[in-house]
Each structure stands twice: as structure tokens, then as C-alpha cells.
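Researcher: Excuse me, C-alpha cells okay?
***
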Amino acid sequence: MDALNVAFTRQQSLYQLVAERQIQERRLELARLQEQMATGRRVNRPSDDPGTYTRSQALRRLAQRYDQHERTLTIGRAWLTATEDALSTLVDLFNSAYEEGVRMATDTASTADRATTADVLEQRLQAVLDQLNARHNGEYLFAGTRTTTQPFQLSGGTVVYNGNDQTRQLEIAPGLQIAVNLTGNDVWEVDENGDGVTDFTITEAWQDLIDALRADDTAQIQNAMARVETARDHLLDRIAQVGETSRRLSMAETELQDARLRLESQRSDLEDADFAEIAVKLQRHQLSLEATLQVTSRLLQTSLLNYLAP
């Protein structure tokens, strides 16, 4: 009888080990399918599919780089918008100065009117300087890379530039950088003849008109107006330059969005779960687990009788 008990105990232990292993395997698979259903991802950890997991993580790191480029594009667009606003205000100021010159350039304009207009323009020169010193998020737009230093100052009746001529480069796509700023020299200095030599600055053109009005000289006023007009056109060219940079940013953004869509499609193919397929597998494994539990229970209950049967 002792030998019979020992044999029975061993057989029962073997049944239990096999059954427990099968039950554990089915429960683990069921848990994995439930996780896939909950997360929507077929691969959640390296053990699910090492090769797919590695490729998926590489795509996720690339997506993070794309996120950074998108944030950089947003920063660049905001900077260019602020730049265009400052330049547009400068154009308006120079238009108004030119219009004042037109009024005062006739022989019928009195000396007093010209002197009064000169005073008005001298006061508005501060508005010109304010736009040349315009800031965005606390940084000076037209200071080159010295964005914490006020670039333009009026010293002894002369405007001086304290910035530099370095560009602010932003990486807007993998391996692609673009300058999003105009330096103070770009905006301030006028190359009238297109020979690469500065002929005058926009503040000098403004001051020329003030001096001509105070000199009460019609011919001098007309010559000064020509410079003011050239300065205005120079500013319009800078607005066009900003517009071209904005266009390039828009193109880069479109290309980045297209690349991101392709990347997300690849990642989805690797990671995303097929809910219909998982639902079928989930039901099948649930039924399999229940069946295994029932069979195991019956086997363990009848194993002694089966062993004692003649």
C-alpha cells in the first residue's frame, strides 16, 4: 500500500506540474493579448518581438528629432513674423517722412512750416530707433547674435550700431540649417548702387531730410527725399527677404510633415495591433484556458481511480 501511495503521489505531482505549466502559459498569453488590446500595440517590450522592438524604438527616436525640428520651425516663424512687423513699421515711418517731404518741397512752403516739420521728424527718429531695437521674447531682432545687447544707440547726434553681422542659424530639418535673422547692418545700411559698398544708412537719410528742412532749401529737401525713398525701398527689399525665408520654412515644414507621416506609417505597421485579430485570439485563448482548467480538474480527481483500475 505504501508503494501504491508513493506511485500515486508521483503521478499526481507529474499531472500537477504539467497542468500548472500549461495553465501558466495560457494565462501569460492571455495577459499579453489583453495588454495589446489595452495599449493598441502589438509590441510593448523587447521580449514580444526583439527585432521589431529595436526597429520601432529607432523610429520613435527619429520621431523625437522631428518633434524638435517642428519646435524649431515654430520658433523661426515667430522670429520672422516679429521681424516683418518691425520692418513694416519702419516702412510706414519712412513713407510718412517722404510724404512730409513732398508737402515741404514746394516753394510755397514757409520757413516756419519747414522748421516745424523738421521738429516732428526729429521726434519720430526715436520711433525709428525703437523699431531698429525691436525685440522678440526679450531678444533684439537686429543685433546679429548679440541678442541681449541693444544694437542701436544715439550718441552725440549720431546713431551707432553695437551688434554684429553674424546670422542666427536654426536647424529646421535633419542636416538643414537656415539663417532666420537680419543683422542690424542688413537693415540699417543702404547699398544704393548695388556694388557691395554702403552709401548711407537709413537714419542718415532721415537726418538728411531734417537738416534740409531746417536749411529751408527746396533743392536740398528734394535730394533728401530721394534718399528717404531709397531707404524705404531698401526696407521693402528686406521684407521680401524675410518673406523668402518664411517660404523656405513653410516648404521645410511641409516636407517634415510628409516625412513624419511616412515614419508614423512605418511605426504603425511594426507596432500597432490588429484589434479584430486580437479579439479572436483573446476569445480563443480564454476558451482554451477554461478548457484546460476543466480537464486538469477532472484528471486530478480521477487519477487515483484510474491508477487502481484492474
Summary: The CA atoms of residues 41 and 272 lie 4 Å apart.
